[in-house]
Design brief:
The chain contains six helices and seven strands. The protein has 172 residues and is α/β, with parallel strands linked by helices. The relative contact order is 0.22.
């Protein structure tokens, strides 16, 4: 089943907010690429954005722009928990169940933040306030690109975002 709260998410992103973008444990190229591209995109729209992952990502992905700014919960637990506690919006990128955050899941579940899913996997849970879930698509990175395009924001696409999206698409 597909879920598309596109208009609600687009409206949500129209007002500046503190946003935390999260990716699943043992993040792969799509999780990192989609998360970083979202962060770059949302910053251009005036949001404060941090990217958090539960544990380290593979070193071969460290070439991606912004990868050095990703916070790793298993390394910087207190900082990550502070960011989740202070977030107005938490985006779940490239995973469909909050337990995929391992030790970070409890903080996200307990947060008062609006939870947004942007994902392409089957059977998303009902733990999210808004979902953009499209299983017929190759990757979450492709879904991020389509969201930007449908929002009329393709002019915001830059080299950094394109590199991250491309990496996510070709590795998934």
């Amino acid at each position: 089943m597909e879920h598309n709260d596109f208009e609600a998410v687009r409206t949500l992103f129209s007002q500046p907010a503190r946003i935390v973008v999260t990716a699943h444990a043992n993040p792969d190229g799509d999780a990192i690429g989609a998360s970083l591209a979202l962060a770059f995109y949302l910053r251009k729209k005036g949001h404060e954005v941090e990217v958090l992952v539960p544990d380290p990502f593979p070193g071969f992905l460290s070439w991606m722009p912004g990868s050095d700014e990703i916070l790793i919960h298993s390394v910087e637990e207190e900082r990550c928990l502070q960011l989740v506690a202070g977030a107005g919006v938490i985006i779940s990128a490239d995973y469909n169940q909050l337990d995929r955050l391992n030790g970070l899941s409890k903080a996200v579940i307990g947060s008062d933040a609006i939870r947004v899913l942007i994902d392409h996997h089957l059977n998303p849970s009902d733990e999210f306030d808004y979902m953009i879930s499209e299983t017929r698509i190759s990757s979450t990175s492709e879904l991020v690109y389509q969201f930007m395009e449908a929002s009329g924001d393709i002019h915001l696409l830059d080299k950094q975002m394109a590199e991250c999206l491309y990496a996510g698409i070709i590795t998934d």
